[in-house]
Write a structure and sequence with these properties.
242 residues; Rossmann fold; Arc Repressor Mutant, subunit A; five-stranded parallel sheet; 11 strands; 19% strand; elongated
Length: 242
């Protein structure tokens, strides 16, 4: 049975969508928060997300963009915004389809069913492993990579920030290299534990300690980040400073 996450802050509409989806045989989770939606998608595999744009904590369009950094899950946008520019924006940001409020239950089911048919297997093949955990698309982690003035050379095990070579521990290097090779993507702690530590039961604080050390060596602070950007409650991403 398809697993669907409903992201809608209006309790009346959320309950209605849950009832419709449950009647169709779907397994449904729901939230009214953008941050909570990102946390859900980072932690659990879903077959589809139904995403409202008018959320209280984040704009739904921003949630969609961040979601695309961590998952290929199909997204059906539900919105009261019916202007063409807005529709084009959400489609370009990665939405698979949209439906404008108010809509009938039949139209909603038909739209979601079409999305699920078009994307059947796509999210799994590119974003999930057999254990159900999401992984970023495969990349060659041994290729040198540059992000802004930061250059990571895995074969040589060296990192340069501009002309200065950074002295990193083995784990710091592995962590920074993984983030650099997935630059712009929000990486959850669960993914870091699996892909960098390769241990599922390491304390989250261990990652925080290594990230703090990396920040110091990159010349930044959590309160004034340059390369390492924290997405609260979701994960960390490495980006070039603006």
């Amino acid at each position: 049975m398809p697993r669907v996450l409903v992201v809608e802050d209006d309790p009346r509409i959320r309950v209605s969508l849950i009832e419709i989806l449950t009647e169709q045989g779907h397994i449904v989770r729901s939230t009214g928060s953008g941050f909570e939606a990102l946390r859900e998608v980072a932690q659990d595999p879903f077959d589809a997300v139904v995403l409202d744009l008018g959320l209280p904590d984040l704009d739904g369009g921003d949630v969609l963009q961040m979601m695309r950094g961590i998952s290929a899950v199909p997204v059906l946008v539900v919105t009261a915004r019916d202007d063409e520019a807005e529709i084009i924006r959400v489609l370009n940001a990665g939405a698979d389809d949209y439906v404008v409020k108010p809509f009938s239950g039949g139209q909603f089911v038909a739209r979601l069913s079409a999305v699920l048919r078009r994307t059947a297997g796509a999210a799994s093949s590119c974003a999930h492993h057999t254990d159900g955990a999401w992984r970023p698309p495969a990349v060659d982690l041994m290729q040198p990579v540059s992000v802004g003035d930061l250059t990571v050379d895995p074969p040589a095990r060296t990192v340069h920030l501009g002309d200065r070579e950074l002295r990193l521990t083995r784990r710091e290097f592995d962590l920074l290299s993984f983030l650099a090779h997935h630059a712009g993507q929000v990486i959850s702690k669960q993914q870091l534990l699996s892909e960098v530590w390769r241990e599922p039961y390491v304390d989250d604080q261990t990652i925080d300690v290594h990230l703090s050390a990396l920040r110091r060596k990159l010349g930044e602070r959590a309160s004034a980040p340059r390369y390492l950007q924290t997405v609260r409650g979701v994960g960390i991403k490495l980006t070039a400073p603006r």
